[in-house]
Amino acid sequence: MLGRAIREQPRIFAVAVAGSVLFGSMVIASAYVVGGVVGKVVVPAIERGSVTRGALALAAAALFGISVLRVVGIFGRRLGAGYMQYRLQAAYRRRVTRRYLDLPLAWHHRNATGTLLSNANSDVEAAWYPIAPLPFAVGTLVMLVGAVVSLFLTDWALALVGLAVFPALFALNVVYSRRMAPRQARAQRLRAEVSGIAHESFDGALVVKTMGREAQETARFAGRAGELRDALIAVGRLRGVFDPMLETLPSLGTLAVLVVGAIRLNQGAIDVTELVSVAFLFTVLAFPVRAIGWVLAELPRSVAGWDRVRRVLDATGDMPYGTTVLDPAAPAPATLAFHDVHFGYEPAEAHLPGTQVLGEVSFTVPAGRTVALVGPTGSGKSTIASLAVRLVDPHTGTVTLDGVDLRELTAASLAGTVALVAQVPFVFDDTVRANITLDRAGIGDEEVWAALRLAEADGFVAALPDGLDTMVGERGTSLSGGQRQRLTLARALAGRPRLLVLDDATSAVDPRVEAAILAGLRAPADGGAPASILVVAYRRATIALADEVIYVEQGRVLARGTHAELLATVPGYADLVTAYEQAEQEREQNRTYDEVTPLTSGLEIEVDR
Ligand SMILES: Nc1ncnc2c1ncn2[C@@H]1O[C@H](COP(=O)(O)OP(=O)(O)O)[C@@H](O)[C@H]1O
Ligand SMILES: [Mg+2]
Predict the structure, then answer these.
(1) Largest CA distance in the chain
(2) Which residue among 357, 391, 424 is best mutated to probe the pocket of ligand 1, counting the most ligand atoms within 8 A of its Cβ?
(3) For ligand 1, what atom is nearest to the CA of residue 555?
(4) Please, which residues have CB within 8 angstroms of residue 367's CB and are 6 or more apart in sequence?
(5) Strand stretches in 285-424, DSSP E
(6) What is the mean pLDDT of residues 302-311?
(7) Domain extents for the chain?
(8) Residue of the CA atom closest to atom 2 of ligand 1
(9) With b meaning 16 or more CB within 10 Å and e meaning fewer, what string describes 29-66?
(10) Coil, helix or strand for 604?
(11) Which of 176, 347, 502, 607 lies 20 to 30 Å from 596 when distance is taken between CA atoms?
């Protein structure tokens, strides 16, 4: 990991290490200068009671010069380390979020949103955390080698003290980080879980509040937050044990130097200058050596974070795009065909069996035609819609557009040809205009209004305080469910798709408006070519507009034909449509549709399914 960091930012790393080595050299130099000043200036001054001006000035200049160089070293190291750390974090945040968008829906189904957030945030941060002290640690290693060499040059007995203390310090750091590893990994995992629970309970705030589950949700969160607290306290406790030991060891070294040094001084093997230099060296070494400990202590957490980041970066299940481009010069409607498609969702956990959701599904949406997909809940209608726009790939069989397998199309060709309007509308926290254009080329205000008209949304948008510039709030909170649905429909229409897939996309819209929308899509007022439409529908008025109805039950196509044919020949179909109609009528009675103002005013009551 550290190798990867250095490979990615070699120049900045070099600057930081150079700064750190300069600092380390100056630490050693300062010890000898202080020793020199004591031996050559202070001791003579005490013995003779006077000191020469020249010696004093020289000592001051030497100390000042070393301090300046130290400052330069610290500056280079800190700046380099900061640049390196934050650049790596930003780069990997970008890579992780990009990867999220590349990974298929199946992968997203298996991974909680909270986990994704913590992968991109705290895991990336943790992964590159040791980069901050890394140049310091590398510089310190160089400094330790320099210190041992200079000790040997001074006196072998004092060097032996160094050889005992430095490896002991190093070993203590290694033991420390070994012990720390599992604790840090646990804390990191709990961080992700806590953010996962928090995300889920905010996301489901409506359910939590209306079902009166505040206390239980809080307890669920508190439980995991408590575990995180205990894990972090365990980390702190270990730190509390080892930190003082790491502080004390160099002090013991200084003590040993003074004892051994005093003996050597008496023997005449060294002089005062040398003794003071070495004793001072041990004192000033203590702090930089800690940098090695910082790196080692952060490594476990970093590795845990990196493992989680790498799981995202290395995740498989890409749905590679092909190279075929459908002729964009022909804005004619496209023909969609399913050929003997089988599909099943992957199990939530690898050891569980997956379930077959669709089998032997074959049907065609001829160019310019509207096909309604009707079936009970859970029969596989949304799955068929996902396959039609290649959110998922079939296990066997093919889905083709104008005879070309969807897997062979380029991303741009696919996105430019088909559009899915899903059951649950998603609106970005932006203006109405931005939500419809999504920055796609060639969609000006005129096209936006045309799309809004087709989606029967021009009325309410015109009535909004700032029109197209109105901010819709996070997830479109300032809009009703039906308004949101029509906005997402307009978004799909603005791209002039050649195949439009509507998955119960107008369920929250007044039934009459829904029929009006579909009628408008089939025969655009501007005389343009209609798109081919695959529509998941419940309401009789909507279904009746379709050229053909495909009736699915338990993932199989049970019958196909016109609405009238199916009503007459398929008992299950008739039952279903009648049941939906009754439910709709009951709703109509309960909601006072009488008070509905003209449909285009934007004030109509929304039916919430
Ligand atoms: N992401 C998923 N993971 C596993 N099973 C799923 C998933 N989505 C849907 N299913 C299952 O697939 C079947 C068909 O679902 P769906 O296509 O949503 O039906 P419909 O839209 O007709 O109500 C259901 O049994 C449902 O439980
Ligand atoms: Mg569905």
Answers:
(1) 123
(2) 357
(3) 14
(4) 332, 333, 334, 335, 532
(5) 336-345, 355-365, 370-374, 396-401, 404-405, 418-421
(6) 87
(7) 336-423+497-590
(8) 345
(9) bbbbbbbbbbbbbeeeeeeeeeeeeeeeeebeebeeeb
(10) coil
(11) 502
pLDDT at 607: 36
- The two three-digit tokens of residue 63, written as one number: 């100390």
Q: At what angle do helices 134-154 and 10-37 cross, to 10 degrees?
A: 40
Check: pTM over 0.90? Answer yes or no: no
Q: Which residue has the tokens 């004390």?
A: 248
Per-residue tokens: 551: 């009736």
pLDDT tens string 539-557:
888 888 899 999 999 999 9
> Which of 297-301, 313-317, 322-326, 497-501 is predicted most confidently?
497-501
Burial string for 476-506 (b: 16+ CB within 10 Å, else e) reads beebbbbbbbbbbbbbbbbbbbbbbbbbbbb
Cα 68 from Cα 60, distance rounded (Å) = 12
> 309 with 92: CB under 8 angstroms?
yes
Would the pLDDT of 606 be above 80? no
Q: Which SS3 state, helix, strand or coil, does residue 93 take? A: helix
Phi, psi values for residue 385, rounded to 5°: -60, -40
Give yes or no for a contact between 425 and 472, defined as CB atoms under 8 angstroms apart. Answer: no
Pairing, β 556-561 against β 418-421:
unpaired
From the CA of 554, the nearest ligand is 1
Question: How far is the centre of ligand 1, averaged over its atoms, from the C-alpha of 358 (Å)?
Answer: 10
| Residues in CB range of 274: below 8 A, 6 or more apart | 35, 39, 154, 155, 158, 261
CATH fold for domain 336-423+497-590: Rossmann fold (3.40.50)
Sign of CA dihedral 567, 570, 572, 573: negative
Tell me the C-alpha distance between 341 and 406, whole Å: 13
Report the nearest atom of ligand 1 relative to the CA of 347: 4
User: Which protein residues touch ligand 1 with a CB less than 6 Å away?
Assistant: 109, 345, 357, 375, 377-383
> What is the C-alpha separation between 104 and 269, in angstroms, rounded?
74
Name the helix (H) or strand (E) containing 30: helix 10-37
- The token pair that represents 438 in the structure block: 């999504």
Side-chain half-sphere CA neighbours of 532 within 13 A: 21
In contact, 471 and 430? CB cutoff 8 Å: yes
> Is residue 336 a contact partner of residue 398, using CB atoms and an 8 Å limit?
no
